[in-house]
Amino acid sequence: MKDQQPTGDPTRLPRHIAVVMDGNGRWAKDRRMPRTAGHRAGINAVRTLIETCGHRGIRALTLFAFSSENWRRPQQEVSTLLDLMLRTMRKEASRLHENNVRIRIIGDRDRLGATLCRQIERVEELTVDNTGLHLVVAVSYGGRWDMTQACRRLAARVEEGSLHADEIDEGMLDDALELSDLPGPDLLIRTGGECRLSNFLLWQLAYAELYFTDVLWPDFREPDLDRALVWFAGRERRFGGVDVALSTAESA
Ligand code: FPP
To answer: To test ligand 1's pocket by mutation, which of 17, 20, 21 has the most ligand atoms within 8 angstroms of CB?
Structure first.
């Protein structure tokens, strides 16, 4: 990853990509395998995506690995998913570090076990000074949880008297949320055919381009990412304004 030059057109590349990795269960069902086999296969797709993003010169990648709502799944599936994350972090941390990847985990750590929390702290500490791809993994994360904890932080400051309620603006709320140090995702990719956000980064995705594909997550490979990037490069992003070329032509 480190040795390769970015191959994308930097003026048309998303700086930050967010991904909802959906379809692991259906991938496994199609093969008459248990759902957990789908999650294991999904790890290979994660590895490929991280490498490809490095090759393409993407600055940040945020993966939705386990949502606040995923706690409702059968206990055995929850344990397998969390165990898979622990093992993957242990196995891949040094290789990612060698490739200059900075790793960060977002989400409600109070619900994760002590072993997983310790491993998270270890990989975050190991890679904190890396300057390559910024990899964020959302674990026990929900957009509503994120907004709630941001409100609590600001409310605590109001309560202690260091902040007046009238002073709270969008920037301040933005700073209290997860990912405040990164530009919001420019592109959201969701695999598995569903067209919804499922409580992912609700605030941060306000102006993201939304790309949905029927490809099931374990099958998602380099050409699939390239298709999304080509689609993104063709999007006209107005951020609530008007297209400059169009408005100039109309007023002439
Ligand atoms: C959704 O598929 C996928 C998940 C809930 C888990 C995704 C997690 C991984 C691929 C592991 C990531 C690990 C790291 C370390 C980044 P689903 O089970 O909802 O599939 P279905 O919609 O077909 O049932």
So the answer is: 21
